[in-house]
Amino acid sequence: MIHFFHVSKVYEKGNRALHEVNVSIGKGEFVFLTGPSGAGKTTFLKLIFREELPSYGRVVANNQNTIALGKRQIPDFRKKIGVVFQDFKLLENRTVFENIVFILKVLGYPASFLRDRAFYVLKLVGLQHRYNDYPRQLSGGEQQRIAIARALVNEPLILLADEPTGNLDPDLSLEIMALFEKINSRGTTVLIATHDREMIKQMRKRTLHLDHGHLQEHRK
Amino acid sequence: MKLLIDFSFYIREGWANFTRSRMLSIFSILIISVSIAIITLFSTVFFNVDTYLKGMENNPVYSIFLTPDTSAKEGKDLALYLETLKGVSNVKLVLPDEGMKKLAKRFPLAGEIQSSIEENPLPISIRLRINTTAVASVKQVLKPYSIVESIYSPHFFLSQLKSLSSAVSFFIALIAVILILASIFTIYNVIRITILARQNDIAIMQLVGADMKYIRAPFTIEGTLQGLFGGILGALFGSGLISVIRAHYLAHFQYLPFLSRITSLPLSYFAGIILLSITMGLFGSTLAASRIDYV
Ligand SMILES: Nc1ncnc2c1ncn2[C@@H]1O[C@H](COP(=O)(O)OP(=O)(O)O)[C@@H](O)[C@H]1O
Ligand SMILES: [Mg+2]
Q1: Fewer CB within 10 Å of terminal CB in chain B, N or C?
Q2: In 10 A of CB A132, how many CB atoms?
Q3: pLDDT above 70: residue B114
């Protein structure tokens, strides 16, 4: 499902974020990506949904070489990947409900389906009562849960989550993890970047470790 | 059905954009409405001159001057007869005094000259409109009348007026093109600014997989709405201006009678002008939206 072949990423200013990364993640896997801050976790995720392109090597996601994707193919490619961004990336001047509905419209769901589906995912993250609030009226943790709801809403082929529990207290974190496992059990490949060691220990999943752009693997 | 849903979505998004950037929208609408008002004004003048010239061309006014010793009765009889002919209309007998009054009104100097000479030098004349197709036969009918001195037709005047009018229309078209380009440029820039202001949202939408058309269409709708409102406002503004000008200034232009009778544009012209304005909005905003970068 996700393959990195000799991938290096050097940002414009010469910052080397990833170095000669080789890894494969199969369909339906549940994988943690860990490492200290600045290790290259976010970069790793960005390469998968083609927010960034590798400087060297190839990234293949969902059978598509991201370098070979034409501009016009990018939206369809991204539609199959749900992303929980580290900074949430919610639309500021839309309500919670509109944020979710917008994605459903983008994904081409019929109008009759939008409302029910939106409330369904909001209920999953426990925020259906905040549907009419704007993102700025929510706490960091609540915004994060909205971002999670948005990423889950269409049960994507791949779910990428960048520090999805960074703003959540431990109980809620576990609930969210359970949610990810549920999605995973329905066939979605899940990749979660986190530096929460406790969480990783508890979950006992495959874990990729990044350090200064170098990838090591610990299989449990 | 899908298309319909998409479209209503674009309209709603476009309307939301439109109301969100209220100051910019108002600015854009004002610029467009000024351009459209000027275009309306010009079109009205052009339309009136054109109808006047067409009327002159199809039913030109002729003046039949009668010999100096013709009596008023003879003149009147001829006028009555002419009225019965096919293709002849608006027959009017002009007696010397009346003729002089008219002349004096158009050319004040002639009035002064007239008051300094005792006898009225003008002959009796008959003014009438003759359809171009009937001119030959009317002339034939008049041939045996010895009281007819000469027949004067305004062809020379008409062709002068026509070449003047085409020079003016060229000038008007030039200004209209400049105004249209300026409006498109304004809309383009205003939409560019709103795009820049929403760059964050645009990036997010792209990252979650929105197609470019989903991102671009609302901006296009926004510009089109500016065109629509600017067009309506400008057309109203322009026709208001016409009524004011007509009421206050044109009444004095009696030597160009069509100017004092200037009519406002037919509805179809207004529809065309508003359509033009909408097209400007569509064009300017499509151009701006096409420059949204891929993320
Ligand atoms: N857009 C960018 N331009 C330049 N350098 C960047 C950019 N994004 C990340 N980096 C650098 O790449 C390295 C890895 O960053 P990142 O992938 O965000 O790490 P993590 O998510 O593990 O904290 C860091 O040194 C960071 O400064
Ligand atoms: Mg990061």
Answers
A1: N
A2: 10
A3: no
